[in-house]
Amino acid sequence: MPDSPSRILVVDDNAQNLALAQATLEEEGFEVELAQNGKQGIEAFARRPPDCVLLDVRMPDLDGFGVSARLRELPGGTETPIIFVTALRDVDTFDRAQLAGADDFLTKPVRPPELVARVQAVLKLRRMNADLRGLYDVVRHQRDDLMRLQLQKERLSAFVVHDLKNPVTAMDLMAQVLASDREAPERVRTTALQIRSEARALMRLILNLLDISKSEEGKLEPRRVRLELPHLVQEAFESVEAKATLHEVKLEKQLSVTQTTADPDLLRRVVENLLDNAIRHTPSGGRVRLVAEAVDGDLLLHVEDSGRGVPAEMREKIFDPFVQDEAGLHPTRSGRGLGLTFCRLAVEAHAGSIHVEDAAPGARFVVRIPKGQ
Predict the structure, then answer these.
(1) Could you give the CA distance from residue 48 to residue 198 in angstroms, rounded to a whole number?
(2) Each residue's pLDDT tens digit, 170-182
(3) Which CATH number fits domain 221-369: 3.65.10.10, 3.30.565.10, 3.30.200.20, 3.40.50.720?
(4) How many CA atoms does the CB half-sphere of 59 hold within 13 Å?
(5) N or C: which end of the chain has fewer CB within 10 A?
(6) CB neighbour class for 129 (10 Å; exposed up to 12, middle 13-18, buried from 19)
(7) Please, are residues 123 and 6 in contact by the beta-carbon 8 Å criterion?
C-alpha cells in the first residue's frame, strides 16, 4: 500500500499567502490544511498533528512565536518541524524564531521552489535515525550561524548607507559653491566639478544599494503619479552634467511625449543611471542621446551612446549585480555593477522591460514603461 502524502499545516492571516502555499505544495503531492490565524492553527494541530507546520510570524492576537510555544506543548509538538515564514528580515526576528523552536526560517517573498525544498528537507530529517539527525543538527546550526551573520551584515550595510547620505550631500553642495565661484582659479573650479561628479555618482550608488535591498525584500513598490517628462529629464541631465563636461561628452535629447504615469523618483534615477553609464562608455568628443516616445500608450525610452557597444554575450549578464566591463573596452571608466541592476529592478517594479541592443556604433538601452491603470 503506497505511503499517504505528508500533511502540511499552513498558518497565515494573509489569504494570498495561504493560496500560494497551498497551490505550490499540493502540486508536489502534499496534503495541505490551512489556518487563518494562530488560534485556528493550534486547534487544527490538536485535532490531527501534521507532518510539518509553515508558520507566519506577524498575526493578530497571537503571533507566530506564541503559536510555536503552544504547539510544542501539544502531543507530537516536539517532533513536528516548524518553518517560520516572515517578511521581517532582521537579526532580532531570526533570534526569536530560533528561541521559539524554529526548524527553519524563510523570508518573504518566498519562491515556490525554495519553499518545496525546505519542506522536503525538514520532512527527510524527521525520518532520519538518531545518528544521522545529530549530524544534520550540526550542519543546521552552521547554516543558522551563516544566516545570522548575513542578516547582521545587511543591517550594518543599511546603517552605513543611510549615514553616508548626509555627508555626500554636503560634499556636493560645497563643491557646487566652488564650481560657481567666478573669481576662483580655473584649476579650482575644474577640481570642484570633479568632486561634484564623484559625489553625485556616490549618491546614486547609495540610493541604488538601498533600493536593491528593498527589491530583495519585496518592498520596492512604485508610487505612480502623472508627471511632466521634460522636467524629469532636465533634472536627470543636470545630475550628470558635470561628468559629461569633464569627459567632453555632448548630451542630446528628443522628447516626442511630454507626460507619463510613473514613480517620479524611480524613473528619474533610471534615466540618471542610464545616462551615467552611457557617458562612462563614450569616448571624449562623443555624444549621448536620450529619446522618449509613446508607443501604444506606453512610454519608450532610448539612451544611446557612441562608444564601442556591449558584446552580444554580455547583453543579458550586464543587468546582474556587480557585473562590469569584462571585455576591458574602457578600463578607465569601469562601473560599479549596480546602476544597471537598479534600472532593471525599478523598471520591472513598473511591470516594464529593459534591454540593450547594438546602436551601430555604441549601445542603445531601451526601457518600456506600460501605461498606468
Answers:
(1) 63
(2) 888 888 888 888 8
(3) 3.30.565.10
(4) 27
(5) N
(6) exposed
(7) yes
Task: Give the C-alpha separation, 300 to 291, whole Å.
Answer: 8
**Long-range CB contact pairs, 331-339, < 8 A, 24+:** 333/247, 333/280, 333/281, 335/277, 335/280, 336/205, 338/205, 338/208, 338/209, 338/212, 339/204, 339/205, 339/208, 339/273, 339/274, 339/276, 339/277
Torsions phi, psi for 285 (to 5 deg): 90, -5
In whole angstroms, give the CA distance from residue 18 to residue 317.
34
Distances (CA, A) of 36 to 12, 19, 25, 74: 5, 11, 17, 19
Phi, psi at 147, each rounded to 5°: -65, -45
User: How is residue 368 written as a grid cell?
Assistant: 518600456
**pLDDT band at residue 53 using 50, 70 and 90 as cut-offs:** very high
- For residue 198, give the 3-state DSSP assignment: helix
Annotate 234-290 with DSSP letters as a single string: HHHHHHHHHHHHHTT-EEEEEES--EEEE-HHHHHHHHHHHHHHHHHTS-TT-EEEE
- Overall CATH class of domain 7-127: alpha beta
Which CB contacts under 8 angstroms, 24+ apart, belong to 309-318?
A: 309/358, 309/359, 309/360, 309/361, 309/362, 309/363, 310/356, 310/358, 310/363, 315/355, 315/356, 315/357, 318/356
Least confident interval from 230-234, 295-299, 358-362 = 358-362
> Which three cell numbers mark 147?
544566516
